[in-house]
Amino acid sequence: MTRTAGGSRAPVALSTSSVYPDSTPDAFEIAARLGYDGMEVMVYTDPVSQNVDVLRRLSDYHQIPVLAVHAPSLLLTQRVWGREPWGKLIKSKDVAEKLGAKVIVLHPPFRWQRDYARDFEAGLARMSDETDVVFTVENMFPLRARATEVVPYARHWDPVGQDYPNVTLDLSHTAASGSDAMAMAAGLGDRLAHVHLADGTGLAIPPDEHLVPGRGNQPCAELLQRLSATGYPGMVVLEVNTRRALSKIEREGDLAESLAFARQHLGSANGQAANGQAAAGTDATRSGSTGSGAAG
What we know:
Blueprint: E1 12-15, H1 24-34, E2 38-42, H2 52-62, E3 66-70, H3 85-99, E4 103-106, H4 114-118, H5 120-128, E5 134-138, E6 143-145, E7 148-150, E8 167-170, H6 171-177, H7 181-188, E9 192-197, H8 220-229, E10 236-238, H9 248-266, H10 269-285
Parallel strand pairs: 1-2, 1-10, 2-3, 3-4, 4-5, 5-8, 8-9, 9-10
Antiparallel strand pairs: 6-7
Helix pairs in contact: 1-2, 8-9, 9-10
C-alpha cells in the first residue's frame, strides 16, 4: 500500500467481534452511535455476518461503511461458507467488493491444510490480480502447554519473514506470542497494511486477551503515534473483547474508551475532536469497567 506524507488520520473502525456475544446488528448500532468511521465484519457463525444483503442494509441504515471483511479462517468458523479455504476467500472477496470494503483479513493456513498451504502465496497473488481489495495475512502466535510450544500453522506465526505482500498487525497477538510489536511493525515496513488495535499481557490462559487499549502491556499508543508520523495509509480496527462486561452500558463504555484512545494517539485535529465526543460517551456510560477477557 502506498504511504502518504502527513494528511488526515487513519480511519478508526470497529470489528463486529467486539460486541460478542451480542450480534452483528448490535455492532453496527453501537459503532454508529459512538462515531466510529466504519466497520470490519467478522464472518462467523452469526448468519447476519454471512449475508451480504443484510450487511448492506445495516450499513445503509446506520450510515456507516463496511471498510474490511475478516474471512472465516478461525477454528470455530471452519464450516462457515464451506470447508474449502480458497472457496472461503473467493466468497470473502465477493462480499467485500459488493460492500465496498477495502481489505480482507485472513489467517495463515493451518498445518493440516496441506494443499492450501502449498499454493498459499501464489494463490493470494492470483486473487489479488483480480480485484482492488487487499488481502492481508494476520500475525498469529504459538500455543503453549507447560514447556511445550505448538505452532498450528503451516507458516511461522511471525509474518516478518514470510512472503506476504500485505500484513495485518494485531497487538493482542503480539502479546500472546511475546513479540516486540514495534520491531514487528518496523520489520514489516510498507507491508503493514492493516492494524487490529487491542491490548494484552501474554499472561492469561488462553493468552489472546484482546483487552481495551491501555489495559495491558503492549505499545498501543506508541504504535499509533508511529503510524501517524510515517503516513500509514491503512485503517485501525478496534478488535477488543467485551465479554466480561456486565451490561450493554459497560460494553458500550469500553468501546467508547477504545475509540477515544485510538483517536487521541493518532493525533489529528479531527481525531482530537472526536476523542472528546467519545470520551464524553465513556463518562456517560462507563461504571467502573475493568479489563476484558479473551476474544474469539
